Amino acid sequence: MARITFVESDGTEHQIEADDGYTVMEVARDNDVPGIEAECGGAGACATCHIYVDLAWTAVAGEAGPTERELLEMVEDRRAESRLSCQINIRSELDGLIVRLPEVQGF
């Protein structure tokens, strides 16, 4: 289990307890966190679950794979810490993870 803090673009925070085996996107969607559209349902095909992993957590969250990197090339406001939340699996090492939501999702 991990506690994740989602920070909306306006600074509003949502702290959520997340069970292992889910993705960051599923946790956001299932807890009605605004700003995660997840149009493809987590298939890694749309980039509407774009997030910014807090810099202190980028190494723990891991690097994006090749397909994820391709999708991230197309998103608005891409940064070095950009990830697709559907590609980050919850595990105990992510307890305390902070992710920020972009102002706009998609391409």
From TrEMBL:
Keywords: 2Fe-2S, Iron, Iron-sulfur, Metal-binding. Its cofactor is [2Fe-2S] cluster. GO terms for biological process: P450-containing electron transport chain. Residues 2-105 form the 2Fe-2S ferredoxin-type domain. Gene3D superfamilies: 3.10.20.30. It comes from the Bacteria. InterPro entries: 2Fe-2S_ferredoxin-like_sf, 2Fe-2S_ferredoxin-type, Adrenodoxin-like, Adrenodoxin_Fe-S_BS, Beta-grasp_dom_sf. GO terms for molecular function: 2 iron, 2 sulfur cluster binding; electron transfer activity; metal ion binding. One of its GO terms (cellular component) is cytosol. Belongs to the adrenodoxin/putidaredoxin family. This is 2Fe-2S iron-sulfur cluster-binding protein. It comes from Sphingomonas tagetis. The lineage of its organism: Bacteria, Pseudomonadati, Pseudomonadota, Alphaproteobacteria, Sphingomonadales.
